[in-house]
Write a structure and sequence with these properties.
The complex is a heterotrimer of chains A (225), B (245) and C (221). By secondary structure, chain A is mainly α. Chain A is built from eight helices and no strands. Chain A has a single domain, classed as Orthogonal Bundle (MetI-like fold), CATH 1.10.3720. In chain B, strand 7, helix 6 and strand 8 form a beta-alpha-beta unit. Classes of the chains: A mainly alpha (225), B alpha/beta (245), C mainly alpha (221). The interface between A and C is large, with 42 and 40 residues.
């Protein structure tokens, strides 16, 4: 119990600092993943067949490579050409990978919107891009929140891998504390794990509230539990 | 008495479904339970083989009481035919019939296979032995499920509305199998609306309403001159429906 | 390009030398995880309340925290209470425990998707719950679970790379080694990426084949 006080409480600021770095990394990579992923999804659904194959190729590559390897590739490899900090490498590596997963999510929900919706929009004289923006996406994106929550959880955990290329996020802070306090490994990692767990839970709750607030009558988003 | 049911009670929350039902079957007897929907007929059947645990009362098979300890052994010889057939989806017809003797009784594969084939012939489906349930019609599936029950060489067979889930054209094939079984001396307790079967094959009709047995007797009496007004009302209506009015 | 090809020709065999380590790590973790996952799935579907709760806690913890932290906890932390594991074993245990939690959820979903009438009919014939599971429910549930299980298997194959962080000599570690000796990091990691892509494609193909080979009419996923 004394260990708890002296180690955990005194070191908590460092741990929270690490968590903050992780959250920043998470936010940036998710934004990159979202923008790119949505773009690729739209390309795959509405674009020329060459674009479609390009999208599938992108997905295949970035989902077939382990996150760790992507991190190493960017930090050690790409820096041979362009100077990249560890944090930037992490954002790029994990962000591109997230884009591949998110494009799959978005493609799925876009294709799940009943064909009649697009038909009705076009019948009104709406050009395709407007129909996508005003009719398809509002429905599809609501449906996407569920699976996107899974992606959120997945990426939050993935930020821990940035440890390997030296980013001082939560996990690395944990190791620093262990070496500086010489011991308490189980305790520190338990606390680190708990912090991830809580962050994950909070994130899920927020996303769930978002989903609820966007709900429309007659349009229940199915949640598989 | 081969099957003895004593004072079985069952309630769900505040609602009393079975208010103390007793009945008995001698070897070779076929009895049909009839009555309005929701009067606990299916519940009674499920209580007899403890698929639903009764709140009170006792069940005896061949003099031995059914308890949680011996229930699996009892169920081996107390067969149950479901309204929804419940054939094992991942097994071909022949394997559905074979699995009981082979895996539960411990029969050798070849013996079990031969037995299964024999029972399938008995219900007229030897030629569809290798079909999967999804490839069979409702009537065929139900006949396979009867073959599956027969392969266990049961002392008693319980039928829970065996034709209610079938299209009208398909009920005939199942009814004729059941009639043949009755004629061959199988001991059967059947919950059903099928008046023709009841009239021809049953030794006794049991009329249930409101969770208790109102009246019972041979078809000759129950369909012609029953004691209770409710019995007459119900069976009369059934009779009219059957005659295709 | 030629430069890369000749580099690849030299380095690829070296990287592949470590492939058995990667594959055995993966196979052991998946096998252990499957068995454990089935047990936890049973706890969550059929178990009495306390067992159900214990299994739920396990699943929530292992799915809600990063695998790297779990790995460090096991490799660096357990020695504090006297359990010392070599890196390879620690990795197998960590990855195995982690995948067990995910597999438990997939198995649970698949078991629950099988109509209850199947188990009822099995019990009505005199089968015990275990017999009903073994011969009736699981054969169907396991077929249903193949697509998700395949995804999980491929995911874990990629996750074997984290073992590198505690010094296991699998293919990622090998590639880094080559990087440090040749200073051609970009090329070696591109090569490594290609190896993973080929590996995962092969595994995906095999599992796809298994799925079609075990399909039964009337038993859609």
């Amino acid at each position: 119990m004394e260990a708890f006080n002296s180690v955990v409480i005194s070191q908590m600021p460092f741990l929270l600092g690490g968590l903050w770095v992780a959250l920043q990394l998470l936010a940036l990579l998710l934004i990159l993943g979202l923008g790119l992923g949505l773009g690729i999804a739209l390309m795959e659904v509405y674009g020329h067949w060459t674009l479609r194959w390009a999208g599938i190729l992108f997905e295949r590559i970035f989902r077939g490579i382990p996150a760790l390897v992507l991190l190493l590739l960017f930090y050690y490899g790409v820096t041979e050409f362009i100077e990249l900090s560890a944090f930037t490498s992490a954002v790029l590596a994990l962000g591109l990978r997230s884009a591949a997963y998110q494009s799959q999510i978005f493609r799925g929900v876009i294709q799940a919107v009943p064909a009649g919706q697009m038909a009705a929009a076009r019948a009104l004289g709406m050009p395709k891009h407007k129909a996508v923006f005003h009719i398809i996406l509002p429905q599809a994106l609501r449906q996407a929140i569920g699976p996107w929550t899974n992606e959120f959880s997945s990426e939050l955990k993935a930020t821990s891998l940035a440890y390997v290329i030296g980013v001082v996020e939560l996990t690395r802070q944990g190791r620093y504390i262990i070496s500086s306090t010489q011991g308490n490994v189980l305790l520190v990692f338990a606390v680190v794990a708990a912090l991830y767990f809580v962050a994950n839970w909070l994130g899920n709750q927020l996303l769930y509230k978002l989903e609820r607030s966007l709900a429309l009558p007659g349009f229940e988003t199915r949640r598989d539990d | 008495m081969l099957l003895q049911v004593e004072n079985v009670q069952k309630s769900y929350g505040d609602t009393e479904i079975l208010k103390g039902v007793s009945l008995g079957l001698s070897r070779g007897q076929s009895k049909v339970i009839m009555g309005p929907s929701g009067t606990g007929k299916s519940t009674l059947l499920r209580c007899i083989n403890h698929l639903t645990l009764p709140d009170g009362g006792r069940v005896f098979l061949d003099g031995e009481e059914l308890t949680p300890k011996n229930i699996n052994k009892m169920r081996e010889v107390l067969a149950f035919v479901f309204q929804d057939f419940n054939l094992f989806t991942h097994l071909r017809a022949i394997d559905n019939v074979q699995i009981g003797p082979e895996k539960i009784r411990g029969m050798k594969k070849k013996e079990a296979r031969d037995l299964a084939m024999h029972e399938l012939e008995r219900v007229g489906l030897a030629d569809r032995a290798h079909a999967y349930p999804a490839e069979l019609s409702g009537g065929q599936q139900q006949r396979v499920s009867i073959a599956r029950a027969l392969a266990m060489q049961p002392k008693v067979i319980l039928f829970d509305e065996p034709t209610s889930a079938l299209d009208p054209e398909l009920t005939g094939e199942v009814i004729s199998v059941m009639s043949q079984l009755a004629a061959d001396g199988m001991t059967m307790l059947v919950v059903s609306h099928e008046v023709n079967f009841a009239r021809q094959a049953a030794d006794e009709i049991i009329f249930m309403e409101g969770g208790e047995i109102l009246e019972q007797g041979p078809p000759s009496k129950m369909f012609v001159d029953p004691q209770h007004k409710r019995t007459r009302q119900f069976l009369d209506v059934l009779g009219h429906e059957e005659r295709g009015s | 390009m030629n430069d890369f090809v000749s580099f690849a020709a030299e380095s690829l065999p070296e990287i592949l030398q470590a492939l058995p380590v990667t594959l055995s790590l993966w196979a052991l973790a998946m096998a252990g995880g499957a068995l454990l996952g089935l047990v936890f799935a049973w706890c969550r579907v059929y178990g009495p309340k306390p067992i159900y709760l214990a299994a739920t806690v396990y699943v929530e913890i292992f799915r809600g925290t990063p695998m790297l932290v779990q790995l460090f906890f096991i490799y660096l932390g357990l020695p504090e209470i006297g359990i010392v594991l070599d890196p390879f074993t620690a990795a197998v245990v960590a990855i195995g425990l982690n995948t067990a939690a995910y597999q438990a959820e997939y198995f649970r979903g698949a078991i629950r998707s099988i109509p209850s009438g199947q188990m009822t009919a099995a019990r009505a014939m005199g089968m015990t719950q275990l017999q009903g599971l073994r011969w009736i429910v699981l054969p169907q549930a396991l077929r249903r679970v193949i697509p998700q299980w395949s995804n999980e298997a491929i995911l874990e194959l990629k996750y074997t790379s984290i073992a590198y962080a505690i010094g296991v000599s699998e293919i990622t570690a090998k590639a880094e080694e080559i990087g440090y000796t040749t200073f051609r990091f970009f090329e070696v990691f591109v090569l490594l990426a290609l190896v993973y892509i080929v590996l995962t494609s092969i595994v995906a193909q095999i599992l796809q084949f298994v799925e079609s080979w075990t399909t039964i009419p009337g038993l859609r996923s």
